[in-house]
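1st attempt posting a full record on here, be nice pls
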Amino acid sequence: MSMVMEKPRDVFLYNTLTRRVEKLVPVHPGEVRMYVCGPTVYDVAHLGHARAEIVYDSFRRFLEYLGYRVILVRNITDVDDKIINRAREENRPASEVALQYTVKYFIDTMRLGVKQPTFNPRVTDHIPEIIAFVSKLVEKGYAYESGGDVYFSVRKYQGYGELSGQSLDKIIAGARIEPGEGKRDPLDFALWKAAKPGEASWESPWGKGRPGWHIECSTMSMKYLGETLDIHAGGMDLVFPHHENERAQSESLTGKKFVNIWMHHGPLTVGGEKMSKSLGNYVTLEDALNKFDADTLRLYILSTHYRSPLDYSEQALESAKKGLDKVRRIIIRLGGGGEAEGEAEELEEEVLKHLSNDFDTPKAIAALMNAANQILERLNKGDVSKSFLGGFVKLWRMLGFFQSGVERATEREKRLVGILMEIRSLARASGDYRLADRIRDEINKMGIVVEDTAEGSFTYIL
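the predicted structure (as tokens):
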């Protein structure tokens, strides 16, 4: 029997705020409301974005497999200093830049096999709500206007620094007032920025301007998920100042706990340095997908715990591809996977146990790979049930693998390969193994694997 049940299995996650693993207790029983910080659309996505997308997509699929209803919001920041700067460099409207890279991001994440969020709000579609949020903070005395800008008074929020684990003294030491800023205190941050020549702007009670970065996520997350979120997710680099500021302004507005569990993934690094556009050490998602398929990227990313750094390595990607080739061989022998009907109860219990403990995908993947090794050994003996094989495939699909099945050869390829395989069979029958091996190697170069078993020879695309 599947693990989907009326009362879903308990899930435990590391909470950045409390520095411990805690039980996920949804505000609304059986329903998880989750906000993921999305991209600022001023350039193409890179593998660092892919890590975020794959981790939270797989986590969402896992929760849904357990029986939770998941409402996932991923924002699009389409007004920002980086977008404005790119527009100036290219001498075109910022809105055009944002639209171009928003569309590109959607295409790349679709190729990556990521499910669309329940809601995918853009900042520019929520300006009235942002203005209303800022106005209420001003009314409550947590914010003030200065020369058309509006700032949040950090010292009025008692819990500032708790999320990032920094003392106020340490934060003060690194804070400063830039020339032209009208802050009363170096700690304060902008909720609303007065319009500058050539920038996109909107009318507000403080004159024309645009939102600050942090207020955008607070506004959109609470609009779609309510005043208290079950999970707020994003990269560790966002803990301070972005998430720290989100928490401060949101709890000041509502007087309620903003987020129950803060979930943060580690960076994707290159030679130990964070992969980023500013350092120029990034691999674009498009380039990665042109070289490796989406399942290979997913396995590469999930084979490292989400909270640990993941260093970019083509060798690791090649290793992930080889591991998936093994699983594909099983699916082909199963007959393509179909709807993957069947059960593998002991394996399912082991996989879910690891995923329920701070989403430990490396241990879950290891259990699945161990099962794959055992299945391949037993397949040749004919003692693996179709039901078990179906359950095995279903667990992979739970994490987002093999969504469109395993790629099959076209009819033309089948005919050509069939002729070569007939010649190969004759060569093997006559003892000419050198010719048989050469035919196999040539077929392999075409991306079609030949596997000789006790049941006969199989061919399939990898």
